[in-house]
Each structure stands twice: as C-alpha cells, then as structure tokens.
Design goal:
By secondary structure, this protein is α/β, with parallel strands linked by helices. It is built from 15 helices and 17 strands. Its main location: membrane.
C-alpha cells in the first residue's frame, strides 16, 4: 500500500500540539516572572496568599470563648502560631483588603483595620533562620539578611547606595535617591542654610524615607528624626529602618491628618518623597504646615524642584509657600529650603489656592482618624511659646515644663511631679529589677501610655530611642512630648499598631487596663488578650515587656503572658511610690515554627 503525500501541517498532529503547549507554557512563565519581579503584582499576590491563610478565621463565638479561657487561665496550651507565611503581617496595612479601596488621595494605602473578630488569634512566628538582631550602633550599617530576606530594594536601589547584600548581611552605605554618595555630604550641604548643630533643632520628620539613612545620619547631630513611608512595592523599607535601630513608622499621607500634634517638628524633610504638595488646593502642603513648628524649616529635594518637565508644579509649590509667607532660604540644585514664619501666617490674603485660616472650633492637635482640612492652622490656636528660637535649645527643653502641659488641669505641677516620678522608677528598673535598659541589647523602645513622656525623658542618657504613644481617647498630651524634644504618635490600642512584627526590643506600659476601657467607665472596648498578642507581634524574640497596674490586673496579665509564651515575674513597685501597683516583667521566648506548619 502506498503512502499518502500529506502536507507538512497535517503530519504528526500530536507532536505539534505538544510542542505548541510547551512553547505557550514557557512564554507564560517568562511573562509571569516579569510580572512578579518587576511590578507591584508580585507583592499583592504574595500578600493575597498570606492573607488567605490568615483570614480563614474561626467562628467569632469560638474566638470569644478562647479569649475568655485565656483570661481566666483555663487555656493551658500556648496560643497557636500563625502560618509560616505571615511572618511580616501587619493587620491594618493588608494589601489584599486595601486594594479594594479607592485610589483617590491614596486612601487605599492608609490604615484600614479589620474588626477584632476578623483577625485570627495567633502568634506571628519569626522567619526561618531568624537571628537576634545586630546591636546598636553596628546595626546602623549592617543587619542580618535572614531576618528580612527581601532583596527588592537592594536589587533596585543598590546603585543609589540604599543597601547591598554582603555575605550574611545587608549593608547600608548611607545613600538615597537624591544623595547616592551618602547622607553625610547632603546633610553638610543643608547645614550651610539650616542650624543643624547646637541644639536649635531637635525633632524632625522625614517623609517617604526609604531605609531612613537620612534620619540615621541626623542622630549624630543630636536631631531625633521620625521617618515614615507606606507599605509599598519596595517591600519593607520601614522594617529595614527599624531593624537598623532608626526611629520609623508605617504611614501614608492620604485623606487624613498624620497622627501627630500641631507644631510638633522643628524640621520637615522630603527627599524625592513624591508627595503632590499642591494637589487638592494645596491640602498636603497645609498638613505639613500644621505639623511644622513656627520658625521651623521645610526641605524638599527632588521633583518638582527645578525638575525637567515640571515647571508648572515647581511654580505652584513656590506660590503656596509665598501665600503662607514662608521665607525662601535657598534653592540649591534640586533642593529648596524654606523657613516658616514665627508668628501667624499672612492670611487672609489673595492667593490662587483659596487658602483660609481654620476657625476656632478646629483643634489642630486632634489627629486620630481626622480628615484633612483645607484650612491653615494659626499659631494663636495653640497656647504657649513654642517657635524655633524661642523654645529652649536641646537638651534644656527636655526638663523645662512647656505651656502646652496646661492641656490638663494643673499641668505644670503635674509635669514636674511626673518627671521626678519616672527618674525614680527608671532607677529602680535598672538597679533593683536589673532590666537591660542602658545596655546594647535594648535600642528600640515603646511606651504605650506615655502621658508627658516622663519614662522616655528618664532614658535620655541611654543609647535608645522611645516611641511615645499617647492613647487617642486620653488627653492630647503629645504636643508636650514634642516640646520636650521627644517623638511619638497618637494611637488607639483597640487596633493594631502601624509597625512590622519584631520591631521593638522593649515595650513599657503603665496602666494597661486603661488602654482598653472607655474613659471614665469600667466597661471594656476590647480585651487584654488581643492587646497582648499585638504586643507580642511588635516585640523581638528575647525582648522585654514591663507592665504596671493594680494587683488584680497584673494577675490577669500574668495568665495571658503564659499563653503568649512569655516568661514572666511579678515584682513589687519601688518603695517610694504610693498606691497598690505591681510590676510584671516578661521576656518573649525565642520559639520557632515546627515543621508541621
């Protein structure tokens, strides 16, 4: 029988189909690789996988039952570990949840917290290979790669001196997009126009900070900079900053006021932060103005300052500054420096942005979930003498009672008594309780109920920085803390905090039960179990927790401490203090996930 002479396209149909499939799969994988590596999709997909596990929460009734058992000490096992791919989980900065929200004014990149019943009750594990962090000051220049094995910044920004992988470490040459040769020469340039030495400037805000090398370099000048950036496609820039021991916070300038009081910062800095200062009738510039102390300095480097194809944006930026009577100190290349007037701005005036002063009903220091206002804060709206140059220089301002202490009754007397009390208490912590404060083992410290910042002030000679948290439902004393030359934020402790896991060495709280109660009531808004699970999330392995409260509360706290795998001891208070307080001191154990996870 003769063979049929078929055209080539008809021969071996199975062979050609198989080859087509293999080719399609290959090109599909190549496309997927590029999408995952070079676009934010990779981050969001990874986040989605992590969240799918985390959000498979059990029935709320089961959750409530578990919380009750833990509080009563009837739950004899430790609380379960979260899944292995939740090691960097931040409940309120969840890409999967937030990506559904509006892009307008970056709403989707702000804090959006799940309800407590929507959060799994579990303990965040460390990543595989996690080591106790490199100690300060060595950590400023290198950290363990295995503690946060995220190479994206090193790969994308290594040529700009942000960070590089070297053996088992990430190293930080100190560079940034606008200062690839390192922050030191850039700071030296700014020092020609701004009094960076001598104590005139103390508190600074670095917006869109990268890995915070600018803030880290300012520490040697005696300037305490709080650096912030959102959780974004660069992956973990704030996590790197905190691992280095630099004050930092996850935050986005979007639709709300930033969680700081009016006139908090002596110096505000943006290096290629890409905040559209003049958009929405200059709303973002107005927010920066609210935060900047009268007589303080604003520095913007990068777009739109003398930037190609951004002439209009640059002209608008200068027009807003003029409308607020900011003094132009210098334009040096792509860097502009302004000085805010000491007294009230020159509003009302004719300006193209329709800027007006806020009315008296607006408390400029109210900044917890507070929508941005398109009005300018007048200096007369805050009592006291606080302009740069009038407020005492650092370190004198630390112990001088500021006028803003009068936000509470008898505030000046209370301030002095509070300062003496915490000097005594911290001495007791160190000398009798033998806490590691003042040793290289402690760098990042949080005070969860800071009031006037007395605890942080008593640590000023130690190699630490303190995040002073003023609960949002308590008197708004955070302005006092900034007037002292310290830093902090407002927060409501019935919600998770905007930081990565394992970012603090030492967490302190006086009056823990007051953080979950309605003011002036015995009714709780949330529970101690969730709060202590959140403290555990923020705390580094082998980190320390100190909790002061009544004996009844401390008994409950000790039961919960066992469930979150802390080793705890209960101690008497210092003999000079009045009241019935007990002090619980706990250490977070360095546990690791078992292979079953």
């Amino acid at each position: 029988m003769g063979h049929l002479n078929l055209p080539a396209s008809k021969r071996n149909p199975r062979q050609w189909k198989l080859l087509d499939i293999i080719t399609a799969i290959f090109f599909g994988l190549v496309l997927l690789f590029f999408l995952l590596v070079f676009t934010p999709l990779g981050d969001s997909m990874a986040a989605s996988g992590r969240q799918a596990l985390l959000l498979s929460t059990s029935d709320p009734r089961q959750r409530h039952r578990l919380v009750s058992l833990v509080e009563l000490g009837h739950h004899h096992k430790p609380i379960e570990a979260c899944p292995a791919n939740s090691v960097d989980h931040m409940p309120c900065e969840d890409p999967r949840r937030n990506s559904q929200l509006s892009r307008e004014m970056n709403l989707y990149r702000e804090r959006h917290c799940p309800l407590p019943d929507e959060m799994p009750l579990c303990l965040i594990p460390p990543p595989p290979g996690y080591k106790i962090p490199v100690q300060w000051p060595e950590s400023l220049h290198k950290i363990w790669h295995s503690n946060m094995p995220h190479n994206k910044i090193a790969d994308r920004k290594g040529h700009q001196g942000w960070m590089k992988e070297q053996g088992p470490h990430f190293i930080f040459p100190g560079g940034g997009t606008m200062f690839p040769d390192g922050a030191a020469p850039y700071i030296e340039k700014l020092g020609q126009y701004i009094p960076l030495t001598g104590g005139t400037l103390r508190t600074a805000l670095d917006m869109g900070c990268g890995v915070a090398s600018f803030g880290g370099s300012l520490l040697s000048e005696g300037i305490l900079a709080l650096s912030f950036a959102p959780r974004d496609s660069h992956k973990a820039q704030i996590q790197f900053a905190l691992e280095r021991g630099i004050p930092a916070f996850v935050l986005m300038l979007g639709t709300r006021r930033l969680p700081f009081p009016a006139f908090a910062f002596d110096f505000i800095h943006c290096s290629r932060c890409l905040i559209p200062f003049t958009a929405y009738n200059a709303t973002y510039f107005i927010e920066v103005d609210r935060l900047l102390r009268p007589g303080g300095y604003l520095v913007i480097s990068g777009p739109p300052v003398q930037w190609p194809k951004q002439d209009k944006e640059w002209a608008d930026l200068q027009a807003v500054a003029r409308a607020l009577c900011y003094e132009l100190i210098a334009v040096d290349g792509n860097t502009v420096i302004w000085k805010k007037p000491d007294g009230d701005s020159c509003l009302p005036n004719q300006n193209e942005f329709g800027l007006e002063s806020c009315d008296e009903s607006n408390d400029p220091s109210n900044a917890w979930y507070f929508k941005l206002r398109r009005c300018v804060t007048s200096t007369s709206s805050v009592n006291g003498e606080y302009p740069v140059g009038i407020i005492p220089k650092w370190p004198d301002r630390l112990t001088r009672a500021p006028s803003r202490a009068l936000v509470v009754k008898n505030g000046i007397d209370l301030f002095r008594a509070d300062t003496r009390r915490w000097t005594r208490r911290v001495a007791y912590y160190k000398n009798t309780l033998n806490l590691k404060l003042g040793s290289p083992a402690v760098r990042n410290v949080m005070d969860m109920n800071a009031f006037f910042g007395g605890f942080a002030a008593a640590l000023v000679s130690d190699p630490v920085w303190v995040m002073n948290v003023v609960p949002a439902r308590k008197p708004l004393t955070l302005g006092v803390i900034y007037d002292r030359g310290l830093i902090g934020v407002y927060h409501d402790w019935c919600e998770p905090f905007s930081t990565y896991p394992r970012t603090y060495d030492f967490i302190h709280v006086a009056g823990i039960e007051s953080l979950i109660k309605l003011p002036g009531s015995s009714k709780s808004r949330c529970n101690l179990v969730d709060l202590m699970v959140e403290m555990d999330r923020m705390l580094r392995p082998e980190g320390t927790v100190v909790i002061r409260d009544s004996p009844e509360v401390i008994d409950k706290v000790a039961r919960i401490a066992h469930a979150v795998r802390w080793t705890a001891t209960v101690n008497d208070k210092e003999p000079e203090s009045h009241g019935r307080e007990k002090i619980l001191v706990a250490t977070k154990t360095f546990w690791k996930l078992t292979s079953s996870h």
